[in-house]
Structures are given as C-alpha cells and as structure tokens.
Design a protein that fits this description.
Elements (H helix, E strand, L loop, with lengths): L6 E6 L6 H11 L3 E3 L2 E3 L13 E3 L11 E7 L2 E6 H8 L4 E6 L4 H6 L7 E7 L3 H11 L4 H17 L5 E3 L5 H12 L4 H7 L9
Parallel strand pairs: 1-7, 1-8, 2-7, 3-4, 8-9
Antiparallel strand pairs: 3-6, 5-6
Helix pairs in contact: 1-6, 4-5
C-alpha cells in the first residue's frame, strides 16, 4: 500500500512579494494542504484572531529557542514557528506549508533534522523595482526601512544557495499560483526544472 510522504513547503520572500496572498489562494483551493500557524510577539491587528493565522505570544515565550524551528526579530517583534505546531499539523495532513522571514531561514536550516518530512524551500519575489513600487503604494511609516530590508534580503539570496525553487511574482496572480501548485504537488517536471533557476535579479 502506497503511503504519501510527509512534505513541508517553506515559502520565503520580502515584504510585498505576494507570498502570503499566494499561500492563501492555494489553501482555499486545496484543503489537503495545511498551513502551519506561526507565532509572533506583536499584538494582533483588529481582524486577527489568536490561533487562526498566528499565535500571539509574549516576548518571554520566545526565550526557549529549543521549542522553535525558526525564529527572527523583525522590526522590533519576534516571529517564529514552534516544533509542536508542526508535529500537530502532520497528524492530519501530509503536506504542510509555512511562510517565514528571510532572517529565519538560517535558524530553520540548522534545525531541519528535527523535521519528520521532506523539505522544499521556495523564494518568492518580483524584481526589486516592482517591490519598491509596491512598498511605496502601501505608504507605510516604515517605508524606507522596508526598502532597505528588501535590498539586504535580495543580496542575502544572491549569496546563499538555500532555495530549491524561485517564483518571480511579477507575472499574473494566476500564473504565479499555477507555478506554486506545480511545486507543491510536484507536477510538470520540465517546468519545475525551470523554476530551479535563479531569476537574473538574484544573480551576482
């Protein structure tokens, strides 16, 4: 009898890359895929419910690093993914997806031995000029900080071979979602080979 292997799909991308939107679209279409609920020390926004999209913890809860697969301090708040939440997710689903900040990928890869599943890492981003335009449209009070962070993140990806696949989200939402589905469900091998190639804006 064939038993489907457990898989963890890790999405990483800068602010305004579209990774959260793509993840939500995929989950709405495929109930067989589970999103790992990550944790943060920031307070919930008005439309956020604890335990649905995030677990809202106290800063002291992040002190025990052994409980986390990854953790990062981003704009003054902690973000992380707990091991126990991942194990609970695998009790009901074979495919689990998580989205993390680029600052957490080092931490995550050092702890991957604790993960009882195959791991697929995906970097999601349009070219920097598109990201800058999107960030400016948000009119965030931290706009300049976000642009500077984005530049550092893209530089980091250029310098490290941490990702198996790359999604250039300057395409239509439908095209980007189709590419993500190919990765998640391992479809269309010839197309998958193309998605393993770094876009020109991520090459040194």
């Amino acid at each position: 009898m064939y038993v489907m292997k457990k898989r963890l799909i890790v999405l990483v991308g800068p602010s305004q890359s579209g990774k959260t939107t793509l993840l939500k679209l995929l989950l709405s279409k495929h109930q067989e895929v589970k999103r790992l609920i990550t944790c943060t020390s920031r307070p919930p926004r008005s439309d956020e419910i604890n335990g649905e999209e995030r677990h809202f913890l106290k800063r002291v809860d992040f002190k025990n690093k052994n409980e986390f697969l990854e953790m990062a301090l981003v704009h003054g708040n902690y973000y992380g993914s707990r091991k126990k939440d991942l194990l609970d997710s695998f009790k009901t689903h074979n495919i689990v997806m998580m989205d993390i900040d680029i600052k957490g990928i080092d931490y995550f890869l050092k702890n991957k031995e604790d993960i009882p599943a195959g791991i697929t890492t995906v970097f999601i981003s349009p070219p920097p000029e598109v990201l800058i335009k999107r960030i400016k449209l948000k009119k965030d009070i931290n706009m300049e900080d976000r642009i500077e962070s984005m530049k550092k993140e893209l530089k980091f990806v250029k310098e490290h071979d941490y990702f198996q696949y790359f999604l250039n989200t300057s395409k239509t939402q439908e095209e980007s979602l189709g590419e993500l589905e190919n990765i998640v469900f391992e479809k269309n091998p010839s197309h998958l080979e193309k998605l393993k190639i770094k876009p020109s804006f991520l090459k040194n």
